[in-house]
Amino acid sequence: MALLVAKFGGTSVGDIERIKHAASKVAQEVRRGNKVVVVVSAMAGVTDQLIGYCRSVNPRHNPREHDSVVSTGEQVSSGLMALALEQRGLNARSWLGWQLPIVTDSDYNKARILSIDITHLHARLEKGEVAVLAGFQGVTEDGLNITTLGRGGSDTSAVALAAALSADRCDIYTDVDGVYTADPRIVAQSNRLSRVSYEEMLELAALGAKVLQTRSVEMGMRYNIPIQVLSTFGNTVGSDMPGTLVTQEDETMENSPVTGIAHSLGDAKVTLANVPDKPGIAALIFGTLARAGINVGMIVQTASGKDQTTDVTFTVSRGDIERVIEIANADRDKIGFTDIQADKNVAKISLVGLGMRSRPGVAALMFETLAEKGINIQVVETSEINISVLIAQEYHELAVRALHAAFSLDQQEA
Amino acid sequence: MALLVAKFGGTSVGDIERIKHAASKVAQEVRRGNKVVVVVSAMAGVTDQLIGYCRSVNPRHNPREHDSVVSTGEQVSSGLMALALEQRGLNARSWLGWQLPIVTDSDYNKARILSIDITHLHARLEKGEVAVLAGFQGVTEDGLNITTLGRGGSDTSAVALAAALSADRCDIYTDVDGVYTADPRIVAQSNRLSRVSYEEMLELAALGAKVLQTRSVEMGMRYNIPIQVLSTFGNTVGSDMPGTLVTQEDETMENSPVTGIAHSLGDAKVTLANVPDKPGIAALIFGTLARAGINVGMIVQTASGKDQTTDVTFTVSRGDIERVIEIANADRDKIGFTDIQADKNVAKISLVGLGMRSRPGVAALMFETLAEKGINIQVVETSEINISVLIAQEYHELAVRALHAAFSLDQQEA
Q: Residue B258 belongs to what domain range?
């Protein structure tokens, strides 16, 4: 008998029939003798609708009221899930963030969990009751204000609750059946990973794989909670171990230097041309962007030429590009660049793998493979377990497929 | 400067534009120097949609989960109203039932308010903040469960809050501009009452006038809170005193024996024929119905005939009629009736007025007026300040118009 947290995303509770189907998955786990705590997202589309209402009423953002309005999506689905579980003969009860409580800081819209009180849950789990927690939400320390954890925050709610309960596993039911070596829509030969380490999952999530929210993986790693990613729409339940288990590194993971390939079309490239090559300029550029709340990704600076100037290239989210140009132009005299170029037609391709640490030559094989296909590398960035390159967007499918084959990730013919 | 509670119903906050319009009414009151606490219903249609979701997931009713789901309607509109007020330059903040808290009993779906903590509100009103309370909801004494106050409960929230705050007045903004001497859709000559007593309003509300929830009028009477009913869609605001003021009886009210005429098409008539005329039979019939949660309205029993039997006639809600027949038939042998007749095509017409107490002849004039039009009276019921008759539904407009004229309620030509 195990204690499981089972989280269902927005498409998994997207309508009444799907809520009933998700309830059937929970019922299966209970029949196996497991204790289950369910965490639910809002029904697909509801959160966007509520955000739209807020914007229509008042274009100026009020984070507190926004969270109070938006958190109702999960409040509705948690009550409906409890009803659906009762319909299946289970004893169930919904819990809102303030009811447990899940205490967070007061950083509305992207609050961080400070503590979870599991007293109530524990007593009721012992009596065989299934708890259904509204994901994505918490309450401030004074108990008076609803907070939300940011987009995808229900994953974080689930893993945090699993950690607080010392659960045996956190099952994330979603609309894909696991984490793949590459996006299956691009690489037909991609393989589902049966296991992946927290570290690799973190890189994959940060680099574009949208299966899990980065914070939830971080939390799983910190508290060592195995996270099982699996499809709501398949026939098996969590304990059958389909999908992908995100867990601690083990030896069997190092068979290949590369575990998976992520890609992202969310970035844009900005180049400031002919920046004077003197101390303090980089601090000026990136300090200003940071204060404006703009995250900068890759950064590369060319070697200084005869004229003592350099080109500074960096990536930002595509949505930030207009603001970045505006901010840079406002500081044009201070920075001293002659020209600013922006390019939205770029893709970031990343190889991720723990095995990379001990296998030299990964970068070389990556560059060779891309060169063979005539793909120019615009920017390179590396960490201990990932190598990312920025290329022209039009090549991104070709690049992912070529790298998938080159690193022997292609599915073996049966 | 006054302290006002302003409540906006579902149609008054039915969409984003209407919420903005309602906010403009509040802003006008604040500009006049008044302190305002706003109470909102759910956006029109939302509550029914949420109830529909609950029923679809699980036809068996779970009152606790139902309240948690359904209360989100007011949570959304309270946040949106706070945002709309901020957009108008006011300092505003939403409050949910559990946040104040508004403590209720645990009778989910129709909870009664036990206490309202106004500590937070008071401090913030002093600082000029407009509080926006989600109507219709409260929290159980242990602070753990959301309750709702029953249909139309936002009126009750508003008047209860006005009482707790010792407000100068409670303004109920709705889609009609007040209480009329009769339904203006039936009687073109009907007059808006500028004042009506709590007692009369209670009778009018109970007898079919849907302007205010009965419980809110009771509460206004108990705590002596003047309730102003006025239209959201007119050009005036509460302090201009349009609409109808529900308040304590005063002398000017007694000009006419009849203040208003209510009618209801919500009832059905049931007759049990040839019931043995012996003690305990009425207790048996109505006791069984009461235990089944069925409210019985008018009751009349004919004089016993030679055969020592009587006909028992009573009214129930039309929606209950099938269950009533089922229950009566199950007890047919015990009760001993020979036949059961049900008639949904009935209307209840009621004259209401404090003046009735001191003016004899009201019933006589009522009966004469109806007789002149050839309208048969099926059942009569009287209280100190009302006379109600049950007639065939097809005559109801004719009856209301004829009585309106007979009791000199028709508008005077200018």
A: 252-414
Whether B60 and A120 lie within 8 Å, measured CB to CB? no
CATH number of the domain bearing residue B397? 3.30.2130.10
Q: How far is A336 from chain B (nearest CA, A)?
A: 40
Do both B296 and B149 map to the same domain?
Answer: no
Q: Look at B20 and A57 and tell me if their CB atoms are within 8 Å.
A: yes
- pLDDT tens-place string over residues A104-140: 999 999 999 999 999 999 999 999 999 999 999 999 9
d(CA B95, CA B167) in angstroms, rounded, equals 18
ipTM: 0.84
If you search the block for the tokens 């009621």, which residue do you land on? B350
* Same-domain status, A159 and A133: yes
Q: How far away is chain A from the Cα of B23, in angstroms, using its nearest Cα?
A: 10
Domain final residue pick, B211, B234, B249: B249
Give chain B positions within 8 Å (CB) of A78.
68
Residue B64 with chain A: CB contacts under 8 Å: 93
Residues A50 and A155 in one domain: yes
CB atoms near residue A56 (< 10 Å) = 16
Average of per-residue pLDDT across A33-46: 96
Contact (Cβ atoms closer than 8 angstroms) between residue B209 and residue B215: no
Same domain, B306 and B363: yes
Q: Looking at residue B137, which CATH number applies to its domain? A: 3.40.1160.10
Among the candidates A208, A226, A249, a domain finishes at A249
Residue A245 and residue A272 in one domain = no
Is A414 inside any structural domain?
A: no
Angle between helix A46-57 and helix B72-87 axes, rounded to 10 deg:
30
Q: Which residues on chain B place their C-beta less than 8 Å from a C-beta of chain A?
A: 16, 19-20, 50, 53-54, 56-60, 62, 64-66, 68-69, 72, 75-76, 78-80, 82-84, 86-87, 93-94, 96, 98-99, 120, 144-146
Residues A98 and A173 in one domain: yes
Condensed to tens digits (0 to 9), the pLDDT of residues A186-205 reads 999 999 999 999 999 998 88
pTM, 2 dp: 0.85
Strand arrangement of the beta sheet that strand A146-148 belongs to = A113-116, A102-104, A137-139, A146-148
Residue B398, token pair as written in the block:
């004719």
- Nearest CA among A370, A399, A151, A409 for reference residue A265: A399
Residues constituting chain A: 414
Tally A–B CB contacts below 8 A.
Answer: 101
A276/A208 same-domain check: no
Q: Which residue of A has its CA nearest to B132?
A: A65
Nearest CB partner across the interface for B86, out of A62, A99, A120: A62
| Confidence bin at A414 (pLDDT 50/70/90) | very low
Instruction: Tell me the average pLDDT of chain A.
Output: 91
Residue A305 scores a pLDDT above 70 = yes
Number of domains comprising chain A: 2
CB contact under 8 A, A64 and B93: yes
Low-confidence ranges of chain B (pLDDT < 70): 208, 235-241, 251-255, 412-414
